[in-house]
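Support case: magnesium ion complex. Customer-provided input:
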Amino acid sequence: MAQALIPVAEARARILAMLTPTAAEPVMLANAAGRVLAEDVVARRTQPPADLSAMDGYAVRAADVASVPARLRVVGEAPAGGAYGGTLGEGEAVRIFTGAPVPQGADAIVIQEDTERYGDIVIARESAVPGRNIRRAGLDFKEGVTGLVSGRKLSPADIAFAAAMNHPSLFLHRRPRVAFFSTGDELVRPGMPIGPNQIVSSNNDGLAALIVEAGGVPLDLGIAPDRRETIRATARKAIGADMLVTLGGASVGDHDLVQSALAEDGLDIDFWRIAMRPGKPLMFGRYRNIPMLGLPGNPVSAQVCALLFLVPALTKLQGGEATAPHTTLARLGAPLAENDRREDYLRASIDHVPGEIPVATPFPKQDSSMLSLLSAADCLIVRPPHAPAAEVGEMVSVIPLRQH
Ligand code: AMP
Ligand code: MG
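Agent response - structure generated as follows:
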């Protein structure tokens, strides 16, 4: 089964090329944050709908207040949500509040702080300039313009904007359903009775959390013992899902049965070995028309590979723009030896010094079974294949893992 190791970027591109976004569904704004638009959002109204006052004060004719103090007669009132029905004549003013329509004939607002009021008379102490303190109709947006473009992941500001455009709901790509299971005779769910030779399955819950964070719906199919029939029976429960992820059983050991079990049951493998560390035995293909990702069983490899491949896959399935994980620059806090042909993702801490580039220090141990270190890591240092030895202080790319 000798096969060349595939570079990380190529593996990701091949996975993404196989995926098509889920169908659109209408979603109320309250549930839309963080999801991806399946259609452009066109403004259903003009905002503001009319020229509105930006301040509390008096609507005036600027010409009447060219020299100050100016004395004006207050002829009416315009609250927000109301309006003054008449037209402002020479020497007249209308008491106006923020958000109220500017009356006909008025072309400026004198703010309340610059006035004195005596019954029906108002004295303006500051001169007015035409247009001042008025928000023109359509200042924010006009009916018919495309405010938000399909494929955009919705921020809270986007949700507010969509509401302002008068959309109570939006068409969004359905959250992708990701079925997954672990394989291994040694595995037991957390909290369940456990034998001396067994270990707790951490991958199921870790992957479910990652899927939720990436916008998907996790369907946990449990743990399949290392038997072909059980692996097949478990995989079949994934039918109807948008994606299947297997955990473990993906390398070349005698008990690594996922590939051989499913090959007899509708699995077409695209590739299965990647030039990266942790996580060489990554597998991708189609199981009965469902895109299938086989992640390594080692818990750190499973999480890192999920971050590099499954998260972009979920972004694409949701109609978003799938990319490699975002990287930033850091200075090395410890020297690194020359890298081999596998792209390396080193667990590291980050120290922030105000005004300086942060310092990323790789942990001395990088064993891909050590969840304590993955949990403690602030970032992954990315080392390209064959990177030369690096000294303290050299710049490296890092993938941030958590926000402080
Ligand atoms: P495998 O890929 O099945 O050869 O597993 C590689 C290593 O990861 C073995 O030490 C397994 O015991 C361990 N492993 C596999 N699946 C899990 C899991 N779900 N949770 C924790 N460790 C696992
Ligand atoms: Mg195994």
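The pocket of adenosine monophosphate (ligand 1) is lined by residues 182, 184, 186-187, 199, 201-204, 247-251, 253, 256, 296-299 (CB under 6 Å).

Case will auto-close in a few days if no follow-up is received.
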